[in-house]
Amino acid sequence: MSSSKTWRVGLIGCGGMGRYHLKMLQAMPDFKIVAVCDLLPAAAEKAGQEFNVPATFGDFEKMLDSVSMDMVTVATQTRGHHAPTVAAARRGISVLCEKPIAIDPAEADEMVETAHRSGAKLAIHQQNHVNPGIRKAQAMVAQGVIGDVVLVRGRNKAGRRSGNEFMEMGTHVTDMMLCFGGAPAWVAGHVTIDGRLAAPRDIMEAKEMSPRDRDSGLVMGQRALAHYGFERGVLGEIHFLAYSKTMSENYGVDILGSQGQLAVRAGGSVGPGSNLWHLARPMEGTPAQLADWKQVDLAGIGVEEPMVTMYRRLVESIGSANEPPSSGVEGRQALEMILGIYESHRNQGQRIPLPLSQRQHPLACWRQASP
């Protein structure tokens, strides 16, 4: 990236994730934080003092109108993604928005369409889209190392209460699946709670299910299993099993091919050979043969913090015909892969075409239709 351009960034949402963005931005010499905003003015002022940001606001509209900037980071909780993203995109300002993209497809539609109309770029911070292990695995798939891709299996961290896990971490997993399957064509799934199929009475707000977790809209259930079909003919599967303990080492994707397999684990440190493995046969065999998995050297793929890559790739796309990684369109697909589980479940596990025909949240529709 040329050092002749300094990218002026405004940040909305000064909580834990927002402060992490500020820390990373401050360390990148080609970026300058010019304003911060939070609904709690004291939080914005505290962040401004800590990161030496000259302008602080309690109203994002005022921030967008008062300070010249090249891009905005939206680091609020999910319910707060839609309004500031649309406001920035309407002004032609590109946005890096935290995941998931929105509460429901209707909000995601407006975010994507507003950016498209204005020419602003929209990326969703599903940073494993550019994880070095994911990028190396994509290169190996393109080279035919594992033959034709047959199945992509999404693997979850666990450790969160059910529905919150679907929304808060689920779209990270479905986004990684998109990297190997392409656009999703259909989903079939079901959701259970206490050993029975979940019902409308089990629908609740995320903060009701987990008061200390993030506000990600309507949720339901305890465990879930889903299968996918992708436009490239690849199959997919994902499951949420409500294990109480978090295991970051389980988090990632498996890519099963006709001649071998790849396994990416995105929850650990990123470094040469650290999070991608290759098995040179299509089936694993017995547990005793697990030693046949070989770590893949990531040298040459460009190993850096994925958040840094996201920012750099986003600004490289500004003013060009290229879309950034985990674009608004891809972020919307990742969300619909999760919400489609609910839509299939309320239709007795039927296969549901993607994109969803109904743009409201499936659980809102189900609750409204229930006596």
Write the layout of secondary structure elements.
Blueprint: E1 7-12, H1 16-26, E2 31-37, H2 41-50, E3 56-57, H3 60-66, E4 71-74, H4 82-90, E5 94-98, H5 105-118, E6 122-125, H6 132-142, E7 149-155, H7 162-168, H8 170-181, E8 184-193, E9 196-197, E10 204-205, H9 206-209, E11 218-219, E12 223-230, E13 235-240, E14 252-257, E15 261-265, E16 276-279, E17 294-295, H10 306-317, H11 328-345, E18 352-353, H12 362-369
Parallel strand pairs: 1-2, 1-4, 2-3, 4-5, 5-6, 7-13
Antiparallel strand pairs: 7-14, 8-9, 8-12, 8-18, 10-11, 12-13, 14-15, 15-16, 16-17
Number of domains: 2
Largest sheet: 10 strands, mixed
Structural class: alpha/beta
Do you know the CATH topology of the largest domain? Dihydrodipicolinate Reductase, domain 2
> What's the N-to-C terminus distance?
58 Å
Order of helices and strands: EHEHEHEHEHEHEHHEEEHEEEEEEEHHEH
User: What helical percentage do the residues reach?
Assistant: 25-40%
- The value of Rg in angstroms is 21 Å
Which CATH class of the largest domain?
Alpha Beta
Taking all residues together, what is the mean pLDDT?
93
CATH homology-level superfamily of the largest domain: Dihydrodipicolinate Reductase, domain 2
Total strands: the figure is 18
Q: Approximately what portion of the residues adopt beta-strand conformation? A: 15-25%
> What would CATH call the architecture of the largest domain?
2-Layer Sandwich
Task: Pick out the low-confidence regions.
Answer: none
What key phrases describe this protein's structure?
single chain, 371 residues, alpha/beta, Rossmann fold, Dihydrodipicolinate Reductase, domain 2, 2 domains, ten-stranded mixed β-sheet, six-stranded parallel β-sheet, globular
